[in-house]
What does this fold into?
Amino acid sequence: MKAIALFFIALILLSGCATSAIPINDAVDVQTDRIFLNNQLNVEGNAVAVFVRDVGFMGCAVYEHLFIDGKKAASLNPGEKVEFVLPPGEHIFGVIPTDPFGTHALNSIDQDLKPDKRYFYRIYADGNSMRTEVQRYVPVFE
It folds into this structure.
């Protein structure tokens, strides 16, 4: 009986590790006091990058810190989104959770943004590797 109970507890814990994408219309904006990157460019002739943090159990008690080109851009809670107008060209996007013990590394991707385009990025926790990552994706609009 104990083995069966332990199996179900382990199953619940492991399935709770991964996060899931949220429809973009259900995501709420990051509070302005947690947006650190000056974003004063006009949209015309530039690119727009929208970042959405997944919802789910894993890491829900900590912020995910978004970095753009090595500068802290925003801190996101689960289910939040933030958008930045960026000049076209090469950019590096990275994320790292709040980590007082220094056990996590910044995970990043390189992107070549084109003018007058809108890009969507998902910030999520991988249940298998226990890492937080950022990836480009096609959002669901509901």
